[in-house]
Amino acid sequence: MDIFVIGATGFVGGAAARHLAARGHSVSGLARSDAAARALSEQGIVAVRGDLEEGRAAVVASVADAVIVAAQLDPTVEQVLVDELLDALAGTGRTLLLTSGTGAFLQRTGGAWSEDVYAEDDPFEVEPLARQRFAVEQAVRRAGRHPRPRRSGTQPEPVRGEPRLG
Fold it and tell me: Which stretches does UniProt call biased (Basic residues) (predicted)?
């Protein structure tokens, strides 16, 4: 399978890219610098030199079997990127995986414990800080209900560790 990873030089995206490459998948990753491109190449990952603002991600993603977005982006950049990816993958049957965190379900509790638990379809009052992220996640979820790309999302527990390429 050909997999394109946006965020392949980061902690979560890098771990995913290395894992997939080690299992025989053809993995490419976006690299914003020559140093990042070299580091990806040394790990058996095809470096795609560019930046998200250049619009190349959607072009490269349109030929991949699956696209993973594991970069921590400015919310506005993320919104534009995900919209471009959904359009590029529309009707292809290819997979879009958006990694996320639990921050979209942020609650202001003043440090107090909350036993509240929310599932994807539960009504929820989104905090202003998380509105753009929540909107992006909802766009990806809606994409799976239409003849657009297959989609998936994940909200892992907080990930800790030393970044490899940061």
Answer: 142-151
CATH of the domain at 14: 3.40.50.720
Contact 3, 20 (CB under 8 A): yes
Domain enclosing residue 59, as ranges: 2-154
- Is 147 within the bounds of a domain? yes
Distance CA 139, CA 83 (A): 8
23 C-beta neighbours (distance < 10 Å), count: 9
* Structural domains counted in the chain: 1
Q: How far apart are CA 29 and CA 67, in angstroms?
A: 10
pLDDT (tens, 9 = 90+) of the chain, 166 residues, equals 999 999 999 999 999 999 999 999 999 999 999 999 999 999 999 999 988 877 777 777 778 999 999 998 888 888 889 988 988 888 888 889 988 776 667 777 778 888 887 777 788 788 888 888 888 888 888 887 654 444 445 444 444 455 444 4
Report the alpha-carbon distance of residue 62 to residue 66 in Å, rounded.
Answer: 9
Q: Are 7 and 71 in contact (CB under 8 A)?
A: yes
Q: Are 13 and 3 in contact (CB under 8 A)?
A: no
